[in-house]
Amino acid sequence: MKVAVLGAGEMGKTVIDHLTKSPYVNEIVAYDINKKQLENLSCPKILRTTTDLNNIISDNEIKLAFITSSNNAHKELTLACLNAGKAAMCEKPIANTVSDAEEIVSTAERNRSFLQIGFELRYSKLYTKVKEWIDTGLLGQIVNTHCFYVCSEFFGKKSWRIKKSLAGGMFLEKLCHYVDLPRWWIGDEVVDVFSACAPNVIDYFEIRDNYNTICKYRKGAVSQLSFMMAPAASFEGDPLRNYIDQQHGDGHCLQYFIYGTKGAAETDVFGRSIKRWQFSDSEKGMKSKLAEQLKWPAEEDHFYFHNTTDQTLDIVERVHKGLPPRTPAKDALESMRLSYAAELAGETGRIVRIDEIN
Q1: Where in the chain are the domains?
Q2: In the chain, which end has fewer C-beta atoms inside a 10 angstrom radius, N or C?
Q3: Quick count: other Cβ atoms within 10 Å of Cβ 293?
Q4: Are 91 and 120 within 8 A, CB to CB?
């Protein structure tokens, strides 16, 4: 199968590398408006490049396109592919506005086209294990989740990701992943959201570097995200050491605490650990015991918390076999709607109902 990658930046390079591992892909065409970006690509034998989008759109042999451009270009590129009869995988966010995102999803539905959005955490072993525990009833009904995420400023001053007009905001560029997971685990609709934001520490950001966000679900569950990007790593970055090992204990964390009626779970990226507790009753009161703890080696990091590899390979296989997306585009749209609401709540300082976002 012939596959296109639209956008030859870091994410585009990553997807191209993954595509070379697929038994279903025999040719890759990379597109970018910046010729230098294309020249910087490593060149496997099956790769060719173009700066002319029409070379992609008019090529009927290209059955699938991965949209890995800056966020502001998602709408144009994704609609062009869908209207040309191609399957599409669009990186999150779907688009920088809810109206554009809705247009993309409705176009895919109208054309009966394959469209999947890049929520690769749903493929990552750390988080699929939690989903497995929930689906088998070990945690009971999920009533509360907490995500604590503190990371260094790794975008850099020259990145498009810090520009409001290009990225759309921190939720659209990054944090949509971390509200999508609780939606997936809880399996219910979010009805309203509130975000409180402190002043930025990173003065060259056009987007916010921190969020404290609370989401209320229709059946009563609550999820909370506490995020701070400001603390820079104290190390210079040793290329011979794993970056997770270097950041562990250096003011960084990425943890979820998931609480249900029958048990609880904790995921810890920097601790390379996932735990499950089982609740029980006793004469004295409620009891809790550690039921499972799983660890993984450093070489498995990618597959546990940022599994773009299996996401890419799965999408290719689904398109090749005529199967539907693993994550329906309409479901991804609801995570994006929540993200637009969280951004609006941060800007206005008020609770935002999800049904306002249309």
Answers
A1: 2-118, 121-305+337-353
A2: C
A3: 11
A4: no
- CA atoms lying within 13 Å on the CB side of residue 227: 23
The verdict on whether omega for the bond into residue 325 sits within 30 degrees of 0, i.e. cis, is no
d(CA 50, CA 94) in angstroms, rounded, equals 24
Q: Scanning the structure block, which residue is given the tokens 């394959």?
A: 114
* 265 close to 277: Cβ distance less than 8 angstroms: yes
Q: How many CB atoms lie within 10 A of CB 94?
A: 31
Per-residue pLDDT reduced to its tens digit, 123-177: 999 999 999 999 999 999 999 999 999 998 889 999 999 999 999 999 999 999 9
pLDDT over 80 at 232, yes or no: no
Report pLDDT digits (tens) over 49-95.
999 999 999 999 999 999 999 999 999 999 999 999 999 999 999 99
CATH number for the segment(s) 121-305+337-353:
3.30.360.10
- Give the 3-state secondary structure of residue 342: helix
Residue 244 near residue 165 (C-beta atoms within 8 A): no
Q: pTM, whole model, 2 decimals?
A: 0.94
pLDDT tens for residues 262-282? 999 999 999 999 999 999 999
2-118 has which fold? Rossmann fold (3.40.50)
321-357 b/e (C-beta count within 10 Å ≥ 16 → b):
eeeebebbbebbbbbbbbbbbbbbbbeeeeebebeeb
